[in-house]
Design goal:
By secondary structure, this protein is an alpha/beta fold. Helices cover 39% and strands 17% of the residues. It has one domain: TIM Barrel (Alpha-Beta Barrel), CATH 3.20.20.
Length: 259
């Protein structure tokens, strides 16, 4: 039996033609059992949580994306307050650093990241880390998190093997999105082949980054199956083996009981 976990999706975003309940049902048809609905700003947290409360196998996070401008700035106290408002909240983020055409100044992004780290230290919750064109700066803050006893996941990983090793050495997991299926991503597929089975996750980052054969379409949680299939093929494993490992890792990282 195949049971997949989409470790990073945005089911509440307005990009979908379908309603959340239909998106969730479609995911089930692709053997996706667990989904983590990710927060990008505090203003939208109520709807992020509302989606998670629709289904016992969906969880939520609370956090502020590094490149979201004009939103409430996160403090550790506020993040802790919101995270404690529901048992469905199992992580903090997405946080991180994004220096690609950034709307938010790097210093502000770093302050946001540290607020998430402190909230993670207080709550014992993992971080969901976004990084774009900020590898060294991100890894420096990931080390700060690790030193504080906080772990997490490098979401939508698109770096090289050396970066993956450095993040794993700090206690972080590596999550692969549909990018790994793209023709122009041979280096990322090499990373996927080398990954230890107990440290990898799969995700969609839907509604973005739909994997082949749906590239260019609106992504959805069910499409994580295509990403898992491609990684399994690259690793010479069956889909069942890859799904079992990545789902087990997801449940362990986010301390979710297996249903």
């Amino acid at each position: 039996m195949i049971e997949l976990a989409d470790s990073h999706c945005h089911i509440d975003f307005p990009d979908y033609e379908a309603e959340p309940a239909e998106i969730i049902q479609r995911a089930r048809e692709f053997d996706v059992r667990y989904m983590l609905n990710i927060s990008v700003c505090l203003e939208d947290f109520p709807q992020v949580l509302a989606v998670a409360e629709m289904d016992p196998q969906i969880r939520a996070t609370v956090g502020v994306h590094p490149n979201y401008d004009g939103v409430e700035e996160p403090t550790a106290e506020r993040l802790v307050e919101l995270a404690q408002s529901s048992d469905q909240v199992v992580g903090l983020g997405e946080t991180g650093l994004d220096f690609f055409r950034h709307k938010v100044e790097p210093a502000v992004q770093e302050t946001r990241f540290r607020a998430h780290i402190e909230a993670g230290r207080q709550l014992g919750l993992p971080l969901i880390v976004h990084s774009r064109q900020a590898r060294e700066e991100t890894l420096a803050l990931v080390k700060e998190a690790s030193d504080a006893g906080v772990v997490g996941v490098m979401h939508c990983f698109a770096e090289d093997w050396e970066t993956a090793k450095r993040a794993m050495d700090l206690g972080f997991y590596i999550s692969f999105s549909g990018i790994v299926t793209f023709k122009n991503a041979p280096e990322l597929r090499e990373v996927a082949r080398k990954m230890p089975r107990d440290r990898m996750l799969v995700e969609t980052d839907s509604p973005y980054l739909a994997p082949e054969p749906n590239r260019g379409k609106t992504n959805q949680p069910g499409y994580v199956r295509y990403t898992a299939e491609r990684i399994a093929e690259e690793r010479g494993e069956s889909l069942e083996e890859l799904a079992a490992a990545t789902t087990e890792n997801f449940l362990r990282l986010f301390a979710i009981p297996q249903a």
